[in-house]
Design goal:
single chain; Heme Oxygenase, Chain A
């Protein structure tokens, strides 16, 4: 049998311990790297799909509202269909609240209370313009409402991400640079005001909280829901914009 000397043994032990430390460090680094790559936040979605988001929140319909050149039939189409949309969105807000943890109630309840005022405000605007608020939903509006309804069975992180994205689309869509022409200033102020912006930031924070601990499958669902919102937002603006051509 070959006998190792004390010095030789000490050297080998140091080598093994060093190797183990290096392996542990590599594993820890891999865990951190993997965790970072698998994480998902609302800001990551906006950065990853920046062009898609741009197309959803900057549309000729909004630009022509700002310049005052939007045609009455275009704007009225948007107002009526958006009223119908907000009615279904209110139902979605109630479902999101029902699925949420108790600590998220305050923010979500504040949103539900604001939606009550918003629906009444829509009715006032429709009365001023002598519009019928109860036509059939146009296919684009119906598709959006069907999508929101489909989220009822989705995990809460998916619902929270979609809810945030819808509200952010309103918020950023009506925050065009420069002054909005009359009579559209009050519409821009309603969704582009600082208070609404802060509310959307709170929704983002809550969505990020639950996405942080969500499974990879749920994060993928949330990402798909975000992309669906961007698609439907763009189509909704386009629906109203092409109303004068129908």
């Amino acid at each position: 049998m070959c006998k190792l000397s004390g010095g030789s043994l000490s050297g080998k032990l140091r080598h093994i311990l060093l190797s183990l430390r290096c392996t542990d460090t590599l594993l820890d680094t891999t865990k951190i790297s993997t965790g970072a790559s698998m994480s998902l936040t609302c800001q990551q979605l906006l950065e990853k799909y920046s062009q898609t988001w741009h197309d959803a929140t900057l549309h000729p319909f909004l630009e022509q509202c700002q310049s005052g050149t939007i045609k009455p039939e275009q704007f009225n189409t948007w107002l009526v269909q958006d009223y119908l949309f907000v009615g279904e969105f209110t139902r979605m807000a109630a479902r999101v609240l029902a699925a949420s943890p108790l600590e998220h109630f305050d923010v979500l309840l504040s949103g539900l209370n604001a939606l009550k005022d918003e629906l009444n405000w829509f009715r006032e605007k429709a009365t001023e313009r002598r519009l019928n608020l109860f036509p059939r939903k146009q296919p684009t509006c119906q598709n959006y409402c069907d999508f929101m309804d489909s989220l009822a069975s989705a995990p809460y992180p998916v619902q929270a991400a979609a809810f945030w994205a819808i509200e952010l689309a309103y918020n950023q869509g009506w925050q065009l640079a420069g002054k909005m022409a009359e009579p559209y200033t009050e519409f821009a102020n309603r969704w582009g005001n600082p208070g609404f912006t802060e509310y959307v930031k709170l929704l983002e924070k809550q969505a990020d909280e639950v996405l942080q601990t969500a499974t990879q499958s749920i994060r993928h669902q949330a990402e798909d829901a975000f992309l669906k919102v961007t698609k439907l937002e763009k189509e909704f603006w386009q629906m109203a914009f092409t109303a004068a051509q129908v």
